[in-house]
Design brief:
By secondary structure, this protein is an alpha/beta fold. It contains nine helices and twelve strands. It folds into two domains: 116 residues, Response regulator (Rossmann fold, 3-Layer(aba) Sandwich); 115 residues, Arc Repressor Mutant, subunit A. Helix 1 links the parallel strand 1 and strand 2.
Length: 248
């Protein structure tokens, strides 16, 4: 039985979600503040977190940021009444994996939770062949589960980035972004295209939110994030991933 933590300060909504999710077969716990959510997460393991953004005390963005800093990579869906793309990207930059704008339909929320639970399998099963070196292709025929570049490797089924002997856990969204960039290896990808294809946003927004997300990925990937060699900025366009940069 999958365990879901609902973080919502509106009692009627929280209890309604508990009732309906339990009817779907989930084991549900409820927290009404960000501080309470972090305490519950520290004590118990969950499979999905449904997290309201507007909470008393620390907000949902801060909760998911603290979760990731503590090494808690539980798939997290944020609920926000602020559907502006900048707020959505702020949630993703903090470490969220999906979002839903209030008011929402219960069936859609249940579908999104199911999607988060299946996402690891989907990433493994639907990952289109990415540009891999021959040894990688020989080691893993069929759908690409692992991609090697330089002295690094990203595992899409384990949601891990390995840099030499250091292992960095990835959120579902971080892995999804890396997969997208790897699939377009060597080609400039515009910020707008990433908004549409990765985040599912189809409106103009402040692209600084995307840039901030890339800054975090560079901290994982690059030996010197200030002088990136794999995740390059294409001025006036967006980004370009280079698996094997030329020697300096």
């Amino acid at each position: 039985m999958s365990r879901v933590l609902v973080v919502e300060d509106e009692t009627h909504l929280a209890e309604g979600l508990r009732f309906n999710l339990e009817a779907e077969g989930y084991q549900v716990a409820v927290a009404d503040t960000g501080e309470a959510a972090l305490a519950v997460l520290a004590a118990r393991a969950f499979d999905v977190v449904v997290l309201d953004v507007m909470l008393p005390g620390i907000d949902g963005f801060s909760v998911v940021t603290e979760m990731r800093q503590q090494g808690l990579y539980t798939p997290t869906l944020i609920l926000t009444a602020r559907g502006h793309a900048g707020d959505v990207l702020k949630g993703f930059a903090a470490g969220a994996d999906d979002y839903l704008t209030k008011p929402f339909e219960l069936a859609i929320l249940i579908a999104r939770i199911g999607g988060l639970l299946r996402r690891r399998e989907w990433m493994q099963a639907t990952l289109a062949p990415a540009p891999v070196r021959p040894e990688s292709a020989a080691a893993a025929p069929g759908p690409v589960q692992e991609f090697h570049f330089g002295d690094k490797a990203v595992s899409f089924d384990r949601l891990e980035l390995v840099v030499r002997e250091q292992v960095y856990p990835l959120t579902l969204m971080e892995a999804h972004v890396l997969r997208y960039l790897i699939q377009h290896e060597g080609k400039p990808v515009s910020r707008q295209k990433m908004l549409e294809d990765v985040w599912g946003l189809h409106e103009d927004t402040d692209t600084r939110a995307i840039d901030n997300f890339m800054v975090r990925l560079r901290r994982y990937i690059e030996d010197n994030p200030g002088r990136p060699r794999h995740l390059l900025t294409v001025r006036g366009v967006g980004y370009r991933f280079v698996a094997e940069p030329k020697p300096e």
